[in-house]
Specification:
Keywords: Glycosidase, Hydrolase, Signal. This is Glucan 1,3-beta-glucosidase A. 28% of the residues lie in helices and 23% in strands. It is an alpha/beta fold. The longest helix has 24 residues, at 198-221. The N and C termini lie far apart (55 Å).
Length: 498
C-alpha cells in the first residue's frame, strides 16, 4: 500500500460513523437473574403492610361490591348490564348486580357496571349510561359506625339513593334513618378486593400523602447493599419491572407520582458498580394487558389493544434512548404477560415489531418478547421472532395457579420440572432461533406440608433445568413477605445455593 493509499484508508475508516450506543459485548449468557418485583411497580401481596395507612382500604379502586336493599331485600342491578336504568329487583346477585369502584377520594366513588358504563343521575332516575364519570356519576358511600357494610349512597345533588320500588331507583331521599325499612339503606357486600397495585396505592393515599409514601418505599425497598448481596451470591442480572408512567416522570398522570425513574437510574449505577446487568421490563401497560394488579390496572378490566400500540412504543423508545449508553443494559422487555385472547396475536406481533424497531433506533440490547398467557401455543412467537436479531422469548414457569398442581406431591412436582418443563424448553430452543429466558419462576409450590429439604430439592431441580435456558432465568422475586418467594430469604436461610 502506498503512503497516499494509506492516508486514504485512514480517512475512510475515520469517516465511518461510530455506533450511537454502547455495544454491551461483555454480556455473559446465560444470565442468573432475580426480579425486583414490588419495587417500581407495586404488588400488594408481596408487602401488604404498605397499604395500612389508607382510610377505607377495603374500598380501593377495582373493588367489586353489591348492594342489597334492606327494605326490599333485593339487589341493585344495572339492567342489561348497563346502558339503561338501575333497578332493585334481583333476589340474588351476579355480574349485572356487581359494581366496580373507581375511587375519587376516601369516601366518594364512581360505580362502573358490567358493560363498563358508570352509574349516574338521569331523567328516569338512577341509570348507567355514561362512558366517562363526572360529578353526576359520583356517590359518597356513607358507612354506619356500628356496621361498616351497612351503607347509604349520597348522590351529587346531596340527596340519598333510594329503592322506591323494585323498578324505580332514585336519588332524592333526605331522611337519616338506619332502619331496615328505610329505602335508602343498603347492605354492601365486598365480593372481590384483589387489586392492590400501583394505581390502588397511589390513589388510595391520595395526592397529599402518596408522593412521600412512594418515595420512602423506593429509597428503602431496594438499596445499593442489595446489589452487593446479589452480586456476592452469584446473581449476574436483575429484571426490573417498570410502569408506563415512568416515561412521564417526574410528573406522570394522576394518581401516579414521580420518582420511579430516579430509582431506576440508581439501579443502573449500582449494577455497574457490582458487575451486574439490567433487564428493563415494561410490566404495566396503559389500559392493562392482563387485568392484574401488576399491570397497573385500575379496575381489573383488560383493555390494551391496537389503539394503545403507539403510546406503548413511545414508552419503549424513551427507555431505549435513556439507557442505551449504560454498559449494564442487557435487554428491554416489551411487555410482561400479555393475556390471551384479550391481547390478540396480530396486535401483539404488530406491537412487538414496532417496539423492536424503536429499541434498534437507539440500542443493540436484546429485545425480549413475552409469551402470551392463556390458551395459546407456546411456540406461536418462534417464526416471528426468528426474523429479528438479538431477540429473546420469555416464558414464565410456576408450579402454581392451576388445579393440576394442587394434588401433586413433592416428588411429582420435581418430576414435572425434570420432564415437562425440560421438554417445554427444548421445544422453544433451536440453533438459529431466538434465545429463551425463563423470566419468572419460584421455589414456592402448592404444598403446605413441605420440609426445608423438599424446598431445597424443588429449587435445585429448577436451577438444573432452567439453567439450560439459552438467555438465562430470573427468580421471582428478590424480596417478598412470603419467604419462599424471596430469593434473599432463601439464600440467607440456605434453601438455595447458586
Amino acid at each position: 500500500m502506498t503512503y497516499v493509499a494509506f492516508l486514504l484508508f485512514l480517512c475512510l475508516i475515520s469517516c465511518v460513523p461510530s455506533s450511537p450506543y454502547a455495544q454491551n459485548t461483555d454480556l455473559k449468557l446465560p444470565l442468573k437473574a432475580v426480579n425486583l418485583g414490588n419495587w417500581l411497580v407495586t404488588e400488594g401481596w408481596m408487602k401488604p403492610s404498605r397499604f395500612d395507612g389508607i382510610t377505607n382500604k377495603d374500598l380501593l379502586d377495582g373493588t367489586q361490591v353489591q348492594f342489597l336493599s334492606t327494605k326490599l331485600n333485593k339487589y341493585l342491578c344495572s339492567e342489561n348490564g348497563g346502558g339503561t336504568v338501575v333497578v332493585a329487583n334481583r333476589p340474588s346477585a351476579s355480574g349485572w348486580e356487581t359494581f366496580r369502584l373507581w375511587r375519587v377520594n376516601e369516601t366518594y366513588f364512581n360505580f362502573r357496571v358490567f358493560n363498563k358504563q358508570f352509574v349516574g343521575l338521569g331523567s328516569q332516575g338512577v341509570e348507567a349510561v355514561s362512558n366517562t364519570p363526572t360529578d353526576s356519576e359520583t356517590f359518597q358511600i356513607v358507612r354506619n359506625d356500628g356496621d361498616l357494610n351497612r351503607v347509604r349512597l349520597r348522590a351529587a345533588n346531596g340527596l340519598f339513593l333510594q329503592a322506591q320500588s323494585e323498578t324505580l331507583v332514585t336519588a332524592d331521599y333526605a331522611g337519616s334513618s338506619w332502619d331496615d325499612n328505610d329505602p335508602s339503606v343498603f347492605k354492601m357486600t365486598i365480593v372481590v378486593n384483589n387489586l392492590h397495585g400501583e394505581f390502588q396505592i397511589t390513589n388510595g393515599y391520595g395526592p397529599e400523602k402518596a408522593p412521600q409514601v412512594m418515595q420512602d418505599h423506593w429509597n428503602s425497598y431496594i438499596t445499593e447493599e442489595d446489589f452487593n448481596f446479589m452480586s456476592a451470591n452469584g446473581l449476574t442480572a436483575v429484571r426490573i419491572p417498570v410502569g408506563w408512567w415512568i416515561a412521564q416522570d417526574p410528573t406522570p398522570p394522576k394518581p401516579f407520582v414521580g420518582g420511579s425513574l430516579e430509582a431506576l437510574d440508581r439501579a443502573f449505577t449500582w449494577a455497574e458498580k457490582y458487575g451486574m446487568k439490567v433487564i428493563v421490563d415494561l410490566h404495566a401497560l396503559k389500559a392493562s394487558q392482563n387485568g392484574n394488579e401488576h399491570s397497573g390496572a385500575r379496575d381489573g378490566y383488560q383493555e390494551w389493544g391496537d389503539s394503545n400500540i403507539d403510546e406503548t412504543v413511545a414508552v419503549i423508545e424513551f427507555l431505549a434512548a435513556r439507557y442505551t449508553r449504560r454498559p449494564s443494559l442487557a435487554a428491554i422487555e416489551l411487555m410482561n404477560e400479555p393475556l390471551a385472547p384479550g391481547v390478540t396475536f396480530d396486535a401483539l406481533t404488530k406491537y412487538y415489531k414496532a417496539g423492536y424497531d424503536a429499541v434498534r433506533k437507539h440500542s443493540n440490547a436484546y429485545v425480549i418478547l413475552s409469551n402470551r398467557l392463556g390458551p395459546t401455543d407456546s411456540k406461536e412467537l418462534l417464526s416471528f421472532a426468528s426474523s429479528l436479531d438479538r431477540v429473546v422469548i420469555d416464558v414464565h414457569f410456576y408450579n402454581l395457579f392451576s388445579e393440576g398442581f394442587n394434588n401433586m406431591n413433592v416428588q411429582q412436582n420435581i418430576d414435572f420440572i425434570n420432564n415437562q418443563r425440560s421438554s417445554d424448553l427444548s421445544t422453544l430452543t433451536s440453533a438459529n432461533g431466538p434465545l429463551v429466558f425463563v423470566g419468572e419462576w419460584t421455589a414456592e409450590f402448592a404444598r403446605n406440608d413441605a420440609s426445608k429439604e423438599d424446598y431445597q430439592r424443588f429449587a435445585q431441580a429448577q436451577l438444573d433445568v432452567y439453567g439450560r435456558a439459552t438467555f438465562g432465568w430470573g427468580y421471582w422475586a428478590y424480596k417478598c413477605a412470603q419467604n419462599h418467594w424471596s430469593l434473599k430469604w432463601m439464600i440467607e436461610n440456605n434453601y438455595i445455593k447458586l
